[in-house]
Amino acid sequence: MKWAALALAAVVLLPFLHKAYTIDDPIFLREAQSVLSDPLHPSAFPLVWSSERRLRASEFLPGGPVAAYLLVPLALARWREWAGHLLVFGYFAIAIVATVALAGRLGLSPWAQQAAGLLTASAPAALGMAGTVMPDIAAMMFTVLGMERYIEWNQSRQTAAGIRAAVFLALAALTRINLLVLLPVAGYHAVRQSWRIALPVVLAAGVVLAGYLITRDPDPTGGTTVGAVGHQLGLDLSGRHVVALLIAYLTTTPLLVALLTHRRMEQGTLLWVWLLVPIPLIAYIQVAPKYLLPALPAAAILAAHGLDRFASRTAILAGITAIGATLGFLILSADARMAGAARTAAARLIRPRVDAGQRVWFAGHWGWHWYAEEAGAMVLSVDPPFPRQGDIVVSSSVDRPVGLLAVLPRTLIESWGSSAPSGQVMSRQGNAGFFSDLWGLLPWSWGPPDDTGFHVWRVTQ
Questions:
Q1: Which of 160, 209, 234, 308 has its CA 20 to 30 A from that of 430?
Q2: Residues 84, 21 contacting (CB under 8 angstroms)
Q3: Phi, psi dihedrals of residue 432, rounded to the nearest 5°
């Protein structure tokens, strides 16, 4: 019953097998490279990111340590994009299969089980993030595996199921720290029946605590998980994050279908509470559809169960999955264009100059950071070393770098990029912010990019 969902995901994603790395991909790739030399401390290395300062990654990365280990297999393929996308597709496939299994364990009909898989596979939030190597798909995978095993433990009281539930729930919280919220959700559900049922949750909490302590950056100048979380919090008094979260729920997950077709079911209360897991992220500095992925299986199962009572259920499901897959494809296409431009710019603007013996620096982040460094450029920072007269600086205007570039004496010698209208996932002009609501509220829009792209400067003094 799950093959249709897997086939749908493959049809949408495999055309993007060679898609360039994007947005925060370089952070997690660098973490994975770091654990190859320091296996217990994935964030114990310096990185220039967002703040324009050279900081220990542990000072500003609030994500979990497991994210780094998930990408270590890419070392065997020399960190090639196709390997990264195949790996994440594997995590996505496991999440789809686990969602179907959970639907079956909750007593849904065979048709509804397949529908839950299809709604998960066609969710724009999932398809868009499956085109990255960020840990959000893996976080969803661990979440649904943990909840499926938790329900099985609840039903059978088998020790093996309880241990697996604890391990998977712990891995979810060690992949994305905000998923610590899963533990009180599952724990409250358990203690309402018996304190013994909550034992896997207690075990999971212990594993999470041990995991964060063991992987803490040992350098005295490094940061802690608590400090990194505090570094990334932002008080939003405008209500923008609430609006962004609501738009993301309604446009990139099947939540609207679940609400419109609401129907009583066994364990339904747990699923509806599960949907609230992303809500605390309103306190984060940004909101994006990717943070909804841990709740996606619950939305898909509730929607599938609601649709099951309609006579025209198959036609409705086909329409919903078609719309979702189409939006997901548009998001992937726009991101592929944006990320591909960074890869091409590094090959055209940086590598020939480095090969010619010039000293080249780069300003900017996102996927550009990965490709610029791979091409041989040094990152521009407000911390030394600094460029000298005659050096070249290549900047990306897509993520609007600031810092030293704003005051560096320089002359423009070349620009490259396109200003033609196209699909956008990160555009203030187009109000598109699939990866961050700081750029826009929509997952996708059509229009010109915010800037032409990439600029080559010569330092004058």
A1: 234
A2: yes
A3: -105, 130
Phi, psi of 215 (to 5 degrees): -95, 10
Q: DSSP class of residue 346?
A: I
- Please name every residue paired with 447 in a beta bridge, in sequence order, or none if there are none: 422
- At 161 the three-state DSSP class reads helix
Q: What are phi and psi of 269, to 5 degrees?
A: -60, -40
Instruction: Name the nearest CA neighbour of 263 among 99, 105, 109, 101.
Output: 109
Spatial separation of the C-alpha atoms in residues 208 and 187, rounded to whole Å: 15
- Spatial CA neighbour of 71 closest among 16, 133, 145, 131: 133
Tally Cβ neighbours within 10 Å of residue 155.
Answer: 12
pTM (2 decimals)?
0.94
The CA distance from 263 to 265, in Å, is 6
Strands (E), 285-379: 360-363, 378-379
Q: Which DSSP state fits 427? A: E
**What's the rounded Cα separation, in Å, for the pair 430 and 452?**
15
CA gap 397, 187 in Å, rounded: 46
SS3 of the chain: helix, strand, coil, percent, to 5: 60, 10, 30
pLDDT of residue 401: 66
Work out the pLDDT band at 234, boundaries 50, 70, 90. confident
**Token pair 């949750």: residue:** 201
What is the arrangement of strands in the sheet containing 454-459, beginning at the earlier edge strand? 378-379, 360-363, 392-396, 454-459, 410-416
Going along 185-277, which residue ranges are E strands? none
Q: 322 is written with which tokens?
A: 């078609």
In angstroms, how far is CA 418 from the centroid of its own chain?
A: 27
- What rounded mean pLDDT belongs to the chain? 92
Amino acid letter for position 318: A
Spell out the alpha helix ranges (H) of 38-109.
Answer: 57-60, 66-70, 81-105
Q: Are 454 and 345 in contact (CB under 8 A)?
A: yes
Give 37's contacts (C-beta < 8 A, 6+ positions apart): none
SS3 assignment, position 416: strand
Residue pair 331/128 in contact by the 8 Å Cβ criterion: yes
What is the rounded distance in angstroms from the CA atom of residue 419 to the CA atom of residue 402? Answer: 21
The DSSP bridge pattern shows strands 432-433 and 422-424 to be unpaired
**Strand, coil or helix: 447:** strand
Which amino acid, 207? V
Query: Residue 55: helix, strand or coil by DSSP?
Result: strand
Which among 284, 260, 258, 211 has a CA at the least distance from the CA of 60? 284
What proportion of the chain, given as a percentage, has pLDDT over 90?
73
Look-up: residue for tokens 């969803």? 140
Contacts of 311 (CB under 8 A, 6+ apart): none
